[in-house]
Structures are given as structure tokens and as C-alpha cells.
Amino acid sequence: MATESSAKLLQMRQQLADLQSQIDEEEAKGRGDAIEQIKAIMTAHSLTPEDLGVKHKRGPNKKKSEPKYRDPASGATWSGMGREPSWIKGKKREKFLIA
């Protein structure tokens, strides 16, 4: 009895996987058709993505970190991010803090 139940569950899971695959294919086809229609309308009306308020995806503005430490001998600076420079490695950072 338990093996019949297991076999039935296995069969149902396979059917579910097949249906999900069909759903995914239809959704992809629908998206492709919609994109083609949108492109045709935009071309016919000479519209750009900017006309629709679409902005280009850009990463966050990377602000350069302000230096926190300065080597008194060379004047080199370090923000405290990334690898430690050789002039500060193994030493107390307080001595190199920029006031």
C-alpha cells in the first residue's frame, strides 16, 4: 500500500513538473510577443525609453573614501579600507590618524 502511494506521489510530482514547464514556456512566449508589440508601437510613434520615463540602470555612485591615515615620512594616505599599506602594517593606527 505504501509503495502504491509513493508511486502515485512520484507520478503526480512528474505531472506537476511537466505542467510547470509548459507554464514557463507559455509565459516566455507571451513576454516575447508583448515585447515585439511594444517595440512596434514605439517605432511607429518614434518613442524612446526615456519618453516613457525609463531610466538607465546604473550602479550606485561610488564615492571615493576620504583618507583617515597618513604616512608622516612619505605623505601617502590610506582610507582604512582594503589592504593595509606596508607603512602602517603591524603598527598602531592612532599614530597615523589624520586630525
UniProtKB/TrEMBL annotation:
It comes from the Bacteria. The keyword Cytoplasm applies. Residues 2-29 form a coiled coil. Residues 49-99 are annotated as: Disordered. Keywords: Coiled coil, Cytoplasm, DNA-binding. Residues 89-99 have a biased composition (Basic residues). It is found in: Cytoplasm, Nucleoid. InterPro entries: H-NS_C_dom. Residues 59-98 form the DNA-binding protein H-NS-like C-terminal domain. GO terms for molecular function: DNA binding. Pfam families: Histone_HNS. Gene3D superfamilies: 4.10.430.30. GO terms for cellular component: nucleoid. This is Histone family protein nucleoid-structuring protein H-NS. Belongs to the histone-like protein H-NS family.
